[in-house]
Amino acid sequence: MFARCGRVMSIVAGLLPLTIFASAAESSSSGLSDTQQASLRALGIQVAIPTYVPNGFQVAKVELKPCPPNSSRNARGVCGRAPNYTILYRNSANNCFALNGIADGVGGGGFEFSYPVRTEILGNIIVEFGRDGSQLRSGSAKSEQVPSPEQLKLPQSNLYSFPAGNGPYYNVSVGDGERLYGCSKNSSITPLELEKILKSLVWLK
């Protein structure tokens, strides 16, 4: 079991040596090209992809960290801290979100607001946003408060889903894209939009 963490992509970043950029040929509702889908299948794990993508967002690139050749894998295809993948989506306003598959190595503190979302392939997933644990410790606000209906309709900072699964773990991250991929501050994706993305997740076949 692991501790709660929103900044999953900061853990994964630097571990992904292979990048497959977007191409003009998009063959599915996820926006992934045939080449990108084939590379994700070659990781040897279950790969979650969205069938709902907010209007205006397209796949910018796919980052992969495969298992080393001839490495030992468990029953779920994991070999230590690999494989990992990130599918980065970007719109014309330079807003981004990323779908991550993480073999291991997640942990950390909670966020200011959180609530559960029921998904078909991963069960209940916790959506988090607002100030993170380090910011909350220096102030009076509490973590994991229930958000108001109005907050769910507005773009939020540090918007994440907590990693779900048994290794690999899967999450969607909005906030970290600003730092890791040169994205603008989130002005497009609300918690309700993130819910739609999470509920649309399917396993890549």
Structure keywords:
six-stranded antiparallel sheet; three-stranded antiparallel sheet; disordered N terminus; 11 strands; 17% helix; alpha+beta; 205 residues
Describe the protein.
There is one protein chain. The chain is α+β, with helices and mostly antiparallel strands. The protein has 6 helices and 11 strands. It has helices spanning 8-12, 34-41, 133-137, 149-152, 177-180, 191-199, and strands at residues 18-21, 48-49, 58-65, 84-90, 96-102, 113-119, 123-129, 160-161, 164-165, 169-173, 202-203. It has a 6-stranded antiparallel sheet with strand order 1-3-4-5-10-9. A hairpin with a 3-residue loop joins strand 6 (113-119) and strand 7.
Layout: helices, strands, pairs:
Elements: H1 8-12, E1 18-21, H2 34-41, E2 48-49, E3 58-65, E4 84-90, E5 96-102, E6 113-119, E7 123-129, H3 133-137, H4 149-152, E8 160-161, E9 164-165, E10 169-173, H5 177-180, H6 191-199, E11 202-203
Antiparallel strand pairs: 1-3, 2-11, 3-4, 4-5, 5-10, 6-7, 7-8, 9-10
Q: Structural class, judged by helices and strands?
A: alpha+beta
List low-pLDDT spans: 1-16
Sheet of most strands: 6 strands, antiparallel
- The tally of beta strands, per DSSP, is 11
N-to-C span: 28 Å
Order of helices and strands: HEHEEEEEEHHEEEHHE
**Strand residue content:** 25-35%
Spatial arrangement of strands, main beta sheet:
1-3-4-5-10-9
Shape: globular
Given the structure, what is the number of helices? 6
Radius of gyration over alpha carbons?
16 Å
Q: What is the helical fraction, as a range of percent? A: 10-25%
Mean pLDDT: 85
